Amino acid sequence: MFYLGKDQLTDKTQSLTATDHADWRKHFALLAKTSKYPALKAFYQAGVVTASTPISDVPMVALDFETTGLDSNRDSIVSIGLVDMSLTRIRCASARHWIVKPETQLHSRSVVVHGITHSAVADAPDLSTVIDELLLRLQGKIVVVHHSPIERGFLNAALKHHIHEGIEFPVIDTMALEARFSRKLSKSLWRYLMRRNLASIRLTDSRTRYHLPYYRQHNALTDALACAELLQAQCATHLTTDTLLNTIWS
Known about the structure:
It comes from marine sediment metagenome. One of its GO terms (molecular function) is 3'-5' exonuclease activity. This is Exonuclease domain-containing protein. Keywords: Exonuclease, Hydrolase, Nuclease. There is one protein chain. By secondary structure, the protein is α/β, with parallel strands linked by helices. The protein has one domain: Ribonuclease H-like superfamily/Ribonuclease H (Nucleotidyltransferase, domain 5, 2-Layer Sandwich), CATH 3.30.420.10. Helix content is 41%, strand content 14%. The chain contains 11 helices and 5 strands, in the order H-H-H-E-E-E-H-H-H-E-H-E-H-H-H-H. A 5-stranded mixed beta sheet has the order 3-2-1-4-5. Helix 2 runs antiparallel to helix 3 and helix 3 packs parallel to helix 6. The chain is globular. It starts with 10 loop residues before the first helix and ends in a 12-residue tail after the last helix.
């Protein structure tokens, strides 16, 4: 994943509010009726757990994209990583990693970040060939990400491009959670308002606060695993197994 500067973090990214908590089960039922693409219809028909489910009972999948840039309207996905997880387990045997041919130009700036070169994508499959498997892997699970506008925005744009339908889904955003927890730990409201000495909520920096090991950054599968571990650490530190899903999803 790309790491964003402070000026690129929106208020929505930095906080979770009550308005983010949609009735996703009802919304999925409505989307299942209108969706035309079979794999997407099946994704919605599988539904999601209720908002009142304890987080210990929630099936999850950690997801990460590497992209050609940060704008889902102009850039595109170049790799996808995912791994199934729960609050207590990360199922490494379920891990999946795809490098795909981007629909937009692969810029030198993004190559420096994620290391996926023009030669690496020259013979890579088109994203359209992995859409069905990707949707199947997300089916029935809550998606865990670090900075949800990337995964939500890019997957929505990619599906609109390939199957002429967008996608909506609930997420647990570890960046938004870390922003919430960091604000609670802030010693000074004035320091928060002045944006001084605030803890970084980037993935690597957030993991460091929980004494998690350093992983090489910007590989989609490694970042998905890192995000999964971060969520487990956040929940173990700040929440309980009885915490309800609707307090941390959006």
